């Protein structure tokens, strides 16, 4: 089965694509694409070009219009001719399996959306068992509705269904469908297992919080890469990992701090980002619980 995210950090060239709509003006789209470029840089890709299109809403077939897709294709071919191949095209919104398949067929390069890019960065950053479990759960939730696309090699062998089938489909319809259902079942079982693990982690975290007594709890919250971990290191004289990259911190770190003889617990939390995928918010519930339990939030 094909991988759906980048597993290695390579300096690949990337094109960014965003839409200007009635609910998202040009300035907002530029802001989102700036953020997407930082995400791409964090994942190890170099942005070489941006494409935007003014439309009422995304196309259900190819996200952008046919003309814009041809424009992107022409640019990719031009780069290929100049021996500067484009490694991927990254779209600013989450794409459906149908959109990804259609765009891939047209552009012939790797297609990512904002969600898969964030998931890739999270997979790269996850260090503890807790973070790895949360990221894996989010990845499977993202993968589940897109399984069909991961089995395109079976379609090439013989697509189609029903009595008419398709060219060369005789004898090949069954195995593909069986394998797809098998993968879906395995993933659903894995999701159930990961949810159980996170419930156990939640219980452990709750016990840890109770054992800390009734000290005042302060949580640093804010946009990713805004400097929460740096502030934590200065106040608590600790060595929490801090780097000028997005999502350098995935695990909540708690340290005891004393200011003017007033002791309190300071928590460094995972950062926020615009258009954060819902699955990630759900998966990181146990991490975000630290914020919910805090007596005071410091918005950095």
Protein architecture, described:
With 300 residues, this protein is of the alpha/beta class. Helices cover 48% and strands 17% of the residues. It is built from 11 helices and 8 strands. The protein has helices at residues 26-43, 66-81, 97-107, 114-125, 129-143, 147-150, 152-158, 173-211, 228-236, 278-283, 285-292, and strands at 12-20, 45-54, 88-91, 110-113, 216-221, 253-259, 262-268, 296-299. The strands form 2 sheets. Strands 2-1-3-4 form a 4-stranded parallel beta sheet, with helices on both faces. A 4-stranded mixed beta sheet has the order 6-7-5-8, covered by helices on one side. Strand 6 (253-259) and strand 7 form a beta hairpin. Helix 1 (26-43) packs parallel to helix 4 (114-125) and helix 4 runs antiparallel to helix 5. The radius of gyration is 22 Å and the shape is globular. 28% of the residues are buried.
């Amino acid at each position: 089965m094909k991988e759906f995210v980048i597993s290695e950090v390579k300096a690949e060239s990337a094109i960014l694509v965003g839409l200007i709509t009635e609910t998202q003006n040009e300035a907002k789209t530029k802001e989102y694409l700036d953020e997407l470029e930082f995400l791409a840089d964090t994942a190890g890709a170099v942005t070489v070009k941006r494409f935007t299109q003014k439309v009422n809403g995304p196309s259900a077939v190819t996200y952008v219009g046919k003309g814009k897709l041809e424009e992107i294709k022409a640019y990719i071919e031009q780069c290929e001719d100049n021996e500067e191949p484009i490694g991927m095209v990254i779209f600013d919104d989450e794409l459906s399996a149908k959109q990804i398949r259609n765009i891939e067929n047209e552009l012939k390069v790797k297609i990512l959306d904002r969600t898969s890019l964030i998931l890739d960065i999270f997979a790269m950053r996850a260090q503890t068992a807790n973070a790895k479990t949360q990221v894996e759960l989010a990845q499977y939730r993202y993968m589940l509705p897109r399984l069909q696309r991961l089995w395109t090699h079976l379609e090439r062998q013989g697509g189609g269904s029903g009595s008419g089938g398709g060219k060369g489909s005789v004898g090949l319809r069954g195995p593909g469908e069986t394998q797809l259902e098998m993968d879906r079942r395995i993933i659903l079982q894995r999701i159930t297992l990961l949810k159980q693990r996170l419930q156990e982690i939640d219980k452990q975290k709750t016990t840890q919080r109770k054992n800390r007594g009734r000290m005042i709890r302060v949580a640093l919250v804010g946009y990713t890469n805004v400097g929460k971990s740096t502030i934590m290191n200065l106040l608590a004289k600790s060595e929490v990992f801090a780097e000028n990259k997005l999502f350098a911190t995935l695990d909540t770190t708690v340290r005891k701090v004393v200011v003017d003889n007033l002791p309190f617990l300071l928590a460094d939390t995972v950062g926020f980002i615009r258009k954060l995928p819902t699955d990630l918010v759900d998966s990181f519930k146990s991490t975000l619980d630290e914020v919910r339990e805090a007596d005071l939030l410091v918005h950095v």
